[in-house]
Amino acid sequence: PILIPILILILQAGHTVSGALTGGSFMYRDKQQLVSSLTSLVNALSRPSPAPPPSTGMPLPPSAVLEGIRADYVERLYLWTGDIDPDLYSPNCTFTDPTLSFTGLAKFQSNLANLQPLLERFVKDPEVDLYSCELSEDGRSVAADWRMRADLNLPWRSAIDLNGTTNFRLLPPV
Fold first, then answer.
1. Does pTM surpass 0.85?
2. H or E stretch at 146
């Protein structure tokens, strides 16, 4: 099930993830190296993706960032689609999960655009449940608790079901 680590790439900034794969199991000693290698392979084999929509670069109030993040999860299913509102992110933001870290909004969008053909081919009926999405008391971070699940179009009828937490750190107001 080499597809599972590829799917995990769609996890974004500061994820903590636990989950299950039905219809099989997976275990890798060096997941970070595997995911990094698979990302490089997918990017090398993919056609260059079109330029992502640029961020306006305009600072947003924390409440607008919170609502934008909610929409990324609920309306755009970004954990599966990679479709995010670029205005919520700094062009040089860092995306980190337990297996991978890279810098740049354009790099994030490019990586996910390259994964889309695989996701469209192998992922059936993707869902995202947003359990909570809250702005910290000091207004400097947003924490989101979520679940992503889908059936996989594989002969052994696998599914992916992950629970996670994402922490978004907001830039201080200018």
1. no
2. strand 141-152
